[in-house]
Specification:
547 residues; alpha/beta; TIM Barrel; 2 domains; 28% strand
Length: 547
């Protein structure tokens, strides 16, 4: 039986005290916590951090590589929604994530995807019905029903939707929510149906409205959606009802930090240390009944050691008594990565991206992308037509956006978007929530076509074309994840991010922002492979507008 001791100042979050202690670990569990004299090392022992909602796929890393990076920042567990790969490969994709994650000492707790496909207004690669959800929820390694994005289905008591929620209740597993801007009586009904969390609040008022009905609020700070500043007051006002999450985390950001960053930011804002750690360490484990230790005798030995309670520099991370990270270096070895995919799309031509126009000009509807938000605005622009077609206008930053069906050959869906800022070339990605078709933004048809075809040739990835040269990061695992080492993937992503910005984009994370421009369940205007979509009326709309 492997046994060792760790001495330092133990942070007792429930007891709201910090005291010198010696922690004894044997066979992966904490067997004893003994108060010690003052002469203990100047280091602090506390439970590890948990990301309360993340799509691992959005890191472009398979779970085993995500784990290698995350443990360096003190993360020991995640509540992971495999919704992205499920939209590509169905239950087979969920099983892939479970199998890969099981090969490393990290507590990646997956849910059963509730909305595959997310809507009927796009082409996904698979479907998961209520029967499939029931079978997944029967598994011990499935911990909850993933975010119920079909809130209209909940409000109108759609039989398939309600059957999935009922299955989660039968197995006593929580139901995650997804209800941006839902307020009042509708929010109350949604919560009464059994929905226990929401990570889509982007105003404090919305969060408070949901909290009064008993909903837990996940404070999200990811690579694209950033709601920490708006929602951070909840750490002090509702410490037992909030958790921290990233939702979507690109690999370069994951190298830099994870939940530990939010802990330090909350401290800098003056929030109470124990309230912060309640949200970062305790609440997710309790809410989701996770097999994660909370630094108690008899618990799995999942804990971290930090240098002090101001800087929170993670010195060591332990999971089940095994040291998995030390001073910023991961001790988890890479495992062989199998590839799994579904990609059936032939190369395209520039003519496929042409938008015909009979007159000399046309008024079009424009998606307005917003920095740090998944929500978009709906604008209008008047564009000049040349040779019977309308093109991007870099002068007003009104660029063409395209979505290409990657599951079978079909006509390209076209629209216009603002705030990407490109002055030349194009960028494209097969990370395009939720169905993960090919999405591209560019200044001309030739550039858009070239960027798209780079992905077709690689069976998925992200690409930049500057008019003469191109860069591509291949994502052969479902067109979402790399088969390479996580740090190399992060470095490659950083190169493409810089290349996209060199084209003129002022967005902090242009590829992450691009990935959400096909996310129909977030208002107001988005583009699917079937056409321009109005998130307020939940219906397709013409790309052309009245002047």
């Amino acid at each position: 039986m492997k046994q060792f001791e760790v001495a330092g100042h133990l942070v007792d979050i429930p007891g709201r005290r910090t005291f010198p202690a010696v922690v004894t670990v044997a066979d992966g569990r904490i067997t004893n916590i003994a108060p010690a004299g003052a002469a203990v090392p100047q280091q602090y022992i506390l439970p590890g951090f948990t990301d309360a909602h993340v799509h691992v796929e959005s890191s472009m890393l398979v779970p085993s590589e995500f784990a290698r990076l995350a443990v360096c920042h003190g993360t020991v567990a995640t509540i992971s929604d495999p919704h992205e790969i499920a939209n590509v490969l169905g239950v087979k994709g969920v099983e892939y994530m479970l199998d890969n994650a099981a090969q490393v000492p990290f507590k990646c707790c997956f849910g059963a995807p509730s909305c595959v496909p997310a809507t009927g207004f796009e082409t996904a690669g698979a479907a998961i019905n209520a029967g499939d959800v029931e079978k997944l929820l029967q598994r011990n390694d499935i911990y909850y029903l993933s975010e119920m994005m079909n809130y209209p289905g909940v409000l109108h008591e759609d039989p398939e939707v309600m059957a999935k929620i009922a299955a989660a209740k039968r197995y006593n597993k929580p139901v995650d929510g997804h209800a941006p801007a839902l307020r009042g009586a509708d929010a109350a009904k949604y919560i009464r149906a059994g929905i226990s969390t929401d990570h889509e609040c982007f105003t404090l008022e919305e969060a408070l409205d949901k909290l009064q009905h008993g909903m837990h609020i996940l404070i999200r700070e990811g690579s694209a959606a950033r709601n920490f500043e708006a929602l951070s007051p909840l750490i002090s006002s509702h410490p037992r009802m909030v958790m921290f999450c990233s939702d979507d985390k690109h690999p370069d950001n994951l190298v830099e930090g994870h939940i530990n960053v939010l802990v330090k930011r909350a401290l800098a804002k003056g929030h109470d240390l124990y309230n912060i750690l309640q949200a970062a360490c305790i609440n997710p484990v309790v809410h989701y009944n996770m097999p994660v230790g909370l630094l108690r005798e008899g618990d799995p030995a999942d804990f971290i050691i930090v240098n002090n309670l101001e800087e929170f520099q993670v010195m060591r991370t332990f999971i089940n008594g095994e040291a998995v990270a030390e001073n910023g270096r991961s001790l988890i070895n890479s495992v062989p990565i199998q590839t799994i995919n579904q990609f059936h799309c032939d190369p395209l031509t520039p003519a496929d991206f042409r938008i015909p126009c009979e007159g000399k000009q046309a008024t079009v509807k424009v998606i307005e992308a917003l920095e740090g938000q998944l929500i978009t605005n709906a604008l209008k622009a008047t564009l000049t037509a040349e040779n019977g077609a309308i093109d991007s206008d870099t002068g007003t930053d009104t660029l063409k956006i395209a979505v290409v069906n990657r599951y079978h050959n079909a006509p390209v869906s076209m629209g216009f978007i603002r705030h990407f800022g490109l002055k030349k070339g194009a960028i494209a990605s097969t990370v395009a929530h939720d169905s993960h078709n090919i999405i591209a933004v560019g200044v001309d048809d030739e550039s858009i076509c070239e960027a798209v075809n780079l992905l077709v040739r690689n069976n998925g990835g992200i690409a930049v074309y500057n008019g003469t040269d191109s860069k591509v990061l291949a994502l052969p695992v479902a067109g979402l994840m790399s088969a390479e080492d996580g740090y190399r993937t992060a470095a490659s992503y950083s190169e493409l991010d810089a290349a996209a910005k060199a084209l003129g984009s002022g967005l902090d994370a242009p590829f992450m922002t691009l990935s959400f421009m096909a996310l129909l369940v977030i208002p107001h205007l988005k583009l699917s492979d079937k056409g321009l979509f109005d998130g307020d009326t939940f219906a397709f709309t013409s790309a052309f507008a009245e002047p």
